[in-house]
Amino acid sequence: MLRVADHFERTDTGRARRxxxxxxxxxxxxxxxxxxxxxxxAGEVASQLAVEVLQEGLPDRGGSIEERLRDLVGExxxxxxxxxxxxxxxxxxxxxxxxxxxxxxxxxxxxxxxxRLYRLREGTFERLTDDHTLVEELVRQGKLxxxxxxxxxxxxxxxxxxxxxxxxxADSHTWPARDGDVYLICSDxxxxxxxxxxxxxxxxxxxxxxDAGRALIDAANxxxxxxxxxxxxxxxxxxxxxxxxxxxxDTTEHEAVSVPPEPATAAGAAAAGPATVVAxxxxxxxxxxxxxxxxxxxQPRPPPGGPRGEPRPxxxxxxxxxxxxxxxxxxxxxxxxxxxxxxxxxxxxSQTVYFVGSNDGFVRLYRVLPYDAPAGLNLYSxxxxxxxxxxxxxxxxxxxxxxxxxxxxxxxxxxxxxxxxGALSTS
Length: 427
Ligand code: MN
What we know:
- 37% of the residues lie in helices and 22% in strands.
- It is of the alpha+beta class.
- Helix 1 packs antiparallel against helix 2, helix 6 (196-205) runs antiparallel to helix 7 and helix 10 (313-324) packs antiparallel against helix 11 (331-351).
């Protein structure tokens, strides 16, 4: 039987930022890193909310560890999303979360975003999680090489986060664990500053976990420290079992083989979207939006599209298909209603305009409401926060952001997308 022999955790603001928007949780057997985003402390709020959920421990219900970890991630998403909807200051906030759990003979993880889990085993240092980032998506599609991705200016843009939408899909996985394994969970402030191989070297050569943790943070800061840096390290040891050492070994092997009773283990199948995160019927917001975004998420989205509150023609069509199967006299009437609904939503979409702007240092896509809002209400709402810092754009592009020119949805989204992918930078 395994247990956590030793652990070390530390977060550091880095050298460029004033705030630390990372949060972590480290109470054996559960360890997590959350990397928040969104201006005006919203990122900090989001990442703290995410780790607060963990204090309640694994949900007390049946099911595999992975399912329960994904439940926790879903619960964190629900709470962050709810707060971001009721509080204008927090609109669009989000966070990553990488959550690991040490079982008796294995380690399980559920994660969303680009905070990573690594394992050092007998001198072999290996990454266990796939990032949900734009660049990793482009690498999977063969449009970028891993080397290009490492240096891509927009490598920190994530395609999945907790908070922006009512439902989110976490990836999860379980690995048999061994005596002496060391695990590292870190925010991208570490891995965007120093190469993976260097992380492995520092970890391997350190004399203790605290030494290793401090060396990693120092190295990230020495390389620029452009982001908040969070590091959690834990080492496992085999403490045998009641039946003695031989029995313990036997169980270990046994369990190791039987670990994947889990339908959604294959990280390789992550693209197919193995996990459904939000427990059915948890809250009104969860259920209302659960069906549609989940279906849409089966395909990992390139830069996150389809933001909340989008005009609804596609859904109306889907409804149309369903209705047709009902052969009742009211069918004609229903079809008429649907035609009107589709016409109305098309009108709504045509009346809705967008602009690219920024109110917190990041490029955002805004939607202008097609009607006069009562005094005091914002006439526009954030339709999509991009994560591209305004300060990193060349002056000509910055002007495109600050001029607030009204555009069609597609036009505005293309512009943001081009900024995200760096496609504009040659012009
Ligand atoms: Mn970060």
